[in-house]
Amino acid sequence: xxxxxxxxxxxxxxxxxxxxxxxxxxxxxxxxxxxxxxxxxxxxxxxxxxxxxxxxxxxxxxxxxxxxxxxxxxxxxxxxxxxxxxxxxxxxxxxxxxxxxxxxxxxxxxxxxxxxxxxxxxxxxxxxxxxxxxxxxxxxxxxxxxxxxxxxxxxxxxxxxxxxxxxxxxxxxxxxxxxxxxxxxxxxxxxxxxxxxxxxxxxxxxxxxxxxxxxxxxxxxxxxxxxxxxxxxxxxxxxxxxxxxxxxxxxxxxxxxxxxxxxxxxxxxxxxxxxxxxxxxxxxxxxxxx
Length: 290
Known about the structure:
Layout: H1 12-23, H2 51-60, H3 66-82, H4 84-97, H5 101-118, E1 125-126, E2 129-131, E3 135-137, E4 146-154, H6 159-163, E5 170-174, H7 193-201, E6 206-213, E7 216-223, E8 225-226, H8 232-235, E9 240-241, E10 246-249, E11 252-255, H9 258-269, H10 272-284
Antiparallel strand pairs: 1-8, 2-4, 3-4, 4-5, 5-6, 6-7, 9-10, 10-11
Helix pairs in contact: 1-10, 2-3, 3-4, 4-5, 5-10
């Protein structure tokens, strides 16, 4: 097996281990103690975002003056909010290639903030609804029925709500796909049927759903979010979903409500596990160091 070198004399696998350990120690050492914190101005988007100014502030991270280091770190944070794609690439290269520990550590912290911005565009797809029991419906122009699933709850602020899907709607198609046989759209396997289609499509992807509402078929476009990692505690493998937000999982009844979903998303978005996954994938995408 060919192990990619990072340019520091050790393999990519070893470097990934270093990343994993470093994430758990995001502490930035200060060479000299300070009797009082240095006032830092409010975060303001920089006017001059030239390459020269970027390099100037990266160099400022290793200034012997504490105030300069703080100002440079704040400038880079503000720049990252304006040019996130460019900043992400820059910080990834600095994390991999810089010989200065302070620059690598600061890059790690700034990348963590950028990973949260990227959250909705990575991982498995998620639409933010509670599904009821599948039912047969004959759509206009069809000579035989298909099966759909009713929406019994819509997560506040989730992809479904943002697209206009409402409780009481029935999803009957997904990107043109129809389910003709009973048990296909809602199989016991959480990776099959409509749930599997949503998960496999991926976060950040646009999908078109056929919605049966008030005895009429309408088309709704939605952009999928990221499926929270801990959502499986509510909708794990082998689950049977019932209407009203109550789930039967492994013989135990669980109540599923809006605060649960919101808390899971926030927990996942800010977790070390998500950041490690995101950072690993981003580092893999970098070209080899010359």
